[in-house]
Amino acid sequence: MTAQIPDTIDIDGSPHALAAVDGDPLFDPVGHDVFPGPFHTGCHRGYVCGYSIADDRLTLRELVLGQHATVAGRPISPGATVFGASVTEDAGDGSYTAAPLSVHVPFSGRLLAGRGLIEHLHVDMGFAPGWRYARVVEVVLDAGHVVARVDRSAEVAAVRDAVLDGVIPDPDGDPRGAGWVRRTFTLTYDRTFPPTHP
How far is CA 180 from the centre of its chain? Predict the structure, then answer.
């Protein structure tokens, strides 16, 4: 296993990586008769979502699937349709992309979206937590509609400084410890804001 391709969320035209989720599940392809299949080491779960927030509404705009996925019981192939959009193949890695989509995602909860992954803090395993990004915005949603947006960059920077200065331990724990790999594959809020954060 290795670092994973994060879902993305476009906020007012600016791309962000999804760094944490607290609340309802986000888009689940299985619930729509789309079954992901093996992708590559950078996409263990077999799919990547591209979301956007426009007009204060959360929408799935793009879905990338591995070559062994099935759609409505049939193997994925160029020309297949997902939510009315034609699927195209990326010859580079054998993935398939359905876009542009316009699928409302009725998520209730909060998300952390990060921009500017700090390269020297990159860990080649799982998903990067929010404190590894230079800028972080929190989006609070109710049934897929934005009710608040908060710039959390200063708080995230305080956590980052505390981790790097040894004031608090890395929220993911020791890379040699049991459960570290599993934890890095989660998107829990406490990976960004541990209970001991300043």
Answer: 19
CA distances, 14 to each of 75, 119, 149, 192 (Å)? 33, 19, 14, 21
Query: Which residues, in sequence order, are bridge partners of residue 79?
Result: none
pLDDT in tens, 62-120: 999 988 899 989 999 888 889 989 999 886 777 899 999 999 999 999 999 999 999 88
171 upstream amide cis, omega within 30 of 0 = no
pLDDT at 197 exceeding the cut of 70: no
Q: How far apart are CA 173 and CA 38, in angstroms?
A: 28
Residue with tokens 């019981």: 73
DSSP-derived secondary structure letter, 192: T
Nearest to 11 by CA among 138, 110, 154: 138
- Name the H helices within the chain: 153-164, 180-184
Per-position DSSP letters for 36-67, written without gaps between them:
-----TT-TTSEEEEEEEETTEEEEEEEEE-T
Give 42-62 pLDDT, tens digit per residue. 888 899 999 999 899 999 999
pTM: predicted TM-score of the whole model, two decimal places:
0.91
